[in-house]
Amino acid sequence: xxxxxxxxxxxxxxxxxxxxxxxxxxxxxxxxxxxxxxxxxxxxxxxxxxxxxxxxxxxxxxxxxxxxxxxxxxxxxxxxxxxxxxxxxxxxxxxxxxxxxxxxxxxxxxxxxxxxxxxxxxxxxxxxxxxxxxxxxxxxxxxxxxxxxxxxxxxxxxxxxxxxxxxxxxxxxxxxxxxxxxxxxxxxxxxxxxxxxxxxxxxxxxxxxxxxxxxxxxxxxxxxxxxxxxxxxxxxxxxxxxxxxxxxxxxxxxxxxxxxxxxxxxxxxxxxxxxxxxxxxxxxxxxxxxxxxxxxxxxxxxxxxxxxxxxxxxxxxxxxxxxxxxxxxxxxxxxxxxxxxxxxxxxxxxxxxxxxxxxxxxxxxxxxxxxxxxxxxxxxxxxxxxxxxxxxxxxxxxxxxxxxxxxxxxxxxxxxxxxxxxxxxxxxxxxxxxxxxxxxxxxxxxxxxxxxxxxxxxxxxxxxxxxxxxxxxxxxxxxxxxxxxxxxxxxxxxxxxxxxxxxxxxxxxxxx
Length: 512
Fold this sequence. Notes:
The chain has helices at about 30-35, 40-45, 80-90, 110-115, 185-205, 225-240, 255, 295-310, 330-340, 410-415, 420-435, and strands at about 15, 50, 55, 70-75, 95-100, 145, 155, 210, 245-250, 265, 315, 350, 445-450, 455-460, 465-470, 475-480, 485-490, 495, 500, 505-510. About 25% of the residues lie in helices and about 20% in strands. It has eleven helices and 20 strands.
């Protein structure tokens, strides 16, 4: 496998939660045409690509991650034609679009599942993981049972309304005949159905996919070998038919996902990455209190980076629809330093809509569409100081999720006009990254110091840039630092006698 589409080398992604981005028809819910209308805003920020959370037809028990029809845009968002138009308008601006692909499960309302529930054998009997008796539970998976004439229990992938699609078992248990091997007829048919879905949207103009729960497909696959093999097969299909398609995985184990054929893997907010030690804990590293630590994050990142080599990219997002907003723990000045880090690390940066203006986590919301504690990070985008912060002309009560009601809530229009705002700093940092190959996706990284300040060097060709990140309020001196200060975020910094003297709350980029 090559290293993927060349545009990934300088890509900056913007994640959009369609329900909450921009409403053009006054129903209180964001839509595809709203995204199209705001492409110029996203391009002005400096982002070159979009990741859209699921926009397919769904009963919305899990905000669209419970898919009812992979081939049809949900009517509340518009039409397939609207989505194709979005692809075309993005391409006209030299931007790319990834759709969110949910391969592990569907909604219980999906026609495949309705057919699989029937007692008589049919084309979809083995599309999902069913035991051979309603009294038998698929171990450690949870299940749906007692809802049809079929004698069996169906495994679920997450919520109880998300039946698990059948890609087989890496090691089927001898005493469980319902556990099919990966190369059995049912699992292979599921795999081909997945390829057909990908083929449909790539032909329509989509540039690739972010794949939900990508490491979960093959069951009883503790080391991931079966799931890796499955994705390698899909990679061969893509290389043959759609060699320019970009693939990013929600896996969190880049040594597995990139071997499987993905171009990028996210560091997840759970598991062993220590990613949220930086942003989302009682004492985050990027707090000016200076009590947090980046040591375990750096150790985990270095381990993954060394395993991955040049096979692909590790991505560190500002946040996403499953995490608390950055602003729940950090203030705007602290977020500027956090973005100096996010936009100077290897891999492709992902900015969650609204993080560029410091949108807040909205506390104490009643769960909407399976959001539960995540609902507060999914509130409507704040565009201006007008009605509903410019998100929708609907009455307030119709909004999909309540907005931040604070009088000082940030908005994109005001921050775009303010050169000192968080958005303006993020825009400058993106432009700075794009001017310097060492700071881009494939520039190498060497960590020199994992305390506070955090110090690392990025290298590409003959260019070498030392990055010094000092979120603490205390100043520091970094010896053996010479060269020219190319860019600074925050407060004072100067090089004297081969030493960088940096004030607290400051990030500095020095060309060696």
